[in-house]
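Quick start: read one record
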Amino acid sequence: MSKWFTLMVVMVGLTACASQPDYREAKRGGYGYSESKLSDSQYRIHFKARGSDKSRAMDYAMLRAAEVTLENGYDWFVVTDRETLVDKETVQSSPQVGFSQRYTQVRECGLVTCRTTSYPSTQFSTGIFVGGSEKSEIESILSIETGKGTRPDGGSSFDARDVQENLAPLVEEE
């Protein structure tokens, strides 16, 4: 019974991890968004996720920038610096050979006594791993300056309400 219980606990844990949304607050440097206040009107936004989808990571960083702007009573933000980091790791496994030795016990009984004899049983196992796995992680970092009133002209200034309205449906689709 304890094996089944343990298996169920592990399966529930794995399901909980797999079902976490991409867009969430990062806990202890994990996946999700975080921000730091640089001055009264300047912030640095981080969004970190599994995978290598640069546009989705940037969209989530922009969405968080819009939320931070609005939460702090501002109307617009200007992206003063942006950076996207992709960290990829390819894991290749080499052919493996295994060896194990077991003992088989045989019990022979006569009329008066029984005799137990152990016989060694050797097992060899080999395996070839074809392919590999690629683990990657992406982080988008934005430095923003926020403001009120008339938004500055330029390609790097954004109306926070428009950004939030246009990018929020991405979170609902998860």
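Strands lie at 32-37, 42-50, 76-92, 96-109, 114-127, 132-147, 157-159.
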